[in-house]
Amino acid sequence: MSVTINQKPELTTPAYNDINFVVSESSSTIYNKDNFKWIGEVVVDSTTIAKLKTPIYFGSTNKGVFNIGRILESYVTHDFNYSDTLASGCANSTKEYNFKVGYEYSTSPTGSVTEYLNQASASGSIWNAALNPYDFVSFDIDTYTDTARKFLTSVGSQSIHRTQKVWLYALRGAATNLRIVYSDATTSTYTLPNVRMVRIPVNLATPSGATYFDCYLRDVDGVQISESYRFYIKDECSKYENYDLFWLNRLGGFDSFRFNRVSKTSHEITRQTYRQNPYTLNNNAVSWTYGTDSFSNTQYYAESKEKLTLFSNWITDSESIWLRELVESPVVYIWDGSILRSCNITSNTYEEKKWINDKMFNLQLDLEFAFVDKVQRR
Predict the structure, then answer these.
(1) How sure is the predictor about 284, in pLDDT bands with cuts at 50, 70 and 90?
(2) Which residues pair with 184 in a beta bridge?
(3) CATH number belonging to domain 140-234
(4) How is the chain split into domains, by residue range?
(5) Which of 302, 282, 283 is nearest to 294 (CA)?
(6) CB atoms < 10 A from the CB of 97, how many?
């Protein structure tokens, strides 16, 4: 008798996609037992966090199917710190796990059931990515771990403002540092911590004359082991307020974009009132009356949500595709030049525009800040 794990996820896999296992038992004397069920144990940090049971999959004679994605996704969140000055690890964005397979059965239809645990096992890790279903079908972890690995962003290059903060996130692998080469041929290097996933703030020391810079990962021997990622520098003045938005992208990193055109602030106010008796009894004058300063319809509770409508400068086709991730993201921060605030995007539709159709176009974005403002109660 033998339990085999016939299908398992990539060694490192996105946490918010399906994490499927297919298992089988070779011995018919086992899988034909009464009350046979497969048992799957999910282990994180040496602790069994879930014990799943499933019958033989319909249409097969000896196989079981487990999807542990929804269990594991609760063990990752995200990593972002606006004050970063050095390369840092992303401890909240990755997690290792072990999956143990066993089964149970009884020797008669009404007999007691006995468990036979850990007949086969597989280990792996997750990171806080959520791939498009069409992309996940052809997902290959080598895209983000081999010697030409990509950084954890979906846009091929970025145009940024000289004063705009930006990060690159990556699955580190054998990389020990990130090299930046500026257009004026000067360089800078960030040493990477020895962790699975890293983030690097890459626009902190850009020379004043540089018009672009390229970033790539290197191993201990100084050999490039990633794509070369380019940031173009814009020196652009605007008479309007600048707002930099940072959001959790589909690959688990944080991207950045500046809105520097018209912005409009509004406040959505919700109030609750009650009707009270405005009359009072004056004992001295023996009168029952009210004054013009009395309250009849009375507000007892009010709150307001601050909302902001932003307009970008002209954007490209590729930026239009990329910025959909901003509209969909569950984690968004906004920097107004003095304070970082959490917010939620409230735009419910998004149109990907193309130059061939629309010629010149920008992005209008509606958001509301994450805190509700409350006034005094009566």
Answers:
(1) confident
(2) none
(3) 2.60.40.10
(4) 3-128, 140-234, 236-378
(5) 282
(6) 22
Please choose, from the candidates 349, 347, 361, the residue with its C-alpha nearest in 3D space to the C-alpha of residue 318: 361
Q: Do 1 and 30 touch, CB atoms closer than 8 A? A: yes
Q: How far apart are CA 198 and CA 190, in angstroms?
A: 11
Cα gap 84→167, rounded to integer Å: 9
CA-to-CA distance for 245 and 243, rounded, in angstroms?
A: 6
Can you tell me which residue has the tokens 């692998």?
Answer: 173
Count of CB atoms situated within 10 Å of the CB of 312:
19
Beta carbons within 8 Å of 278's beta carbon, 6+ residues apart: 290, 294, 295, 296
Q: How far apart are the first and last CA of the chain?
A: 74
Residues 6+ apart with CB under 8 A from 65: 20, 21, 22, 23, 54, 57
| CA pair distance 124, 98, nearest whole angstrom | 6
| Stretch 356-373: mean pLDDT | 93
For residues 216 and 229, the answer to whether their CB atoms sit within 8 Å is yes
pLDDT digits (tens, 9 = 90+) for 211-223: 999 999 999 999 9
Kindly state the tokens that stand for 274: 């009650």
Instruction: Residue 275: count other Cβ atoms within 10 Å of its Cβ.
Output: 9
When pLDDT is cut at 50, 70 and 90, the band that residue 1 belongs to is: low
pTM surpassing 0.90? yes
Domain 236-378 belongs in CATH node 2.60.40: no
CA atoms within 13 A on the CB side of 13: 23
Give CATH for domain 3-128.
2.60.40.1930
C-alpha 13/C-alpha 1 separation (Å) is 30
The 8-class DSSP code of residue 128 comes to S
Distance CA(39)–CA(41), nearest Å, equals 7
Q: Answer yes or no: are the C-beta atoms of 104 and 3 closer than 8 Å.
A: no
